[in-house]
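> Could you send the FtsX extracellular domain-containing protein prediction when you get a chance?

Sure thing. Input:
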Amino acid sequence: MTDVPETQPRPARFWPVALIVAAASLLLGVGIGGGAVLLAGWRQPDQRDFVVWIYLKDGVTAEQKAAVQTTLDKIPSAGGVTFVSSRDAYEAARTDPANKDLVAILGESDPASWPQRFEVETTGTEFRCEQVSALWKAPGVQQVRVAMVYTKDQPGAEISC
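Output:
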């Protein structure tokens, strides 16, 4: 009798096919996931403008003003820190068209009674109150206010820090 050698089937090599299928599935998943997020309305957060006002107490010293300015200089802003004197604040309020009904009342007030203040305008997706937290109880500071500036599409608001 003749011995017929048994032929063993050649093992199938599925790993290249499996690799191609896995890569295609991964790309398809990323495409579907990214498309779904965009179709659902996800967008980059809007950049908003914020204004910080630091109102000073009567009798504030030059050293206290310098300390406030040093803290405010750490806030990133395009225009830097602006100091508004009592007289400048009074004149701005008197000439502001929004205050036209108050001109008679403003005319009777003493410009020196208006508080001095620092102003900083900054831009970002949010305002971190930690930037001004050192000023809340700083000597010479009467009040800290932060506001988000309104735009044509979005209302403004005062930020509670």
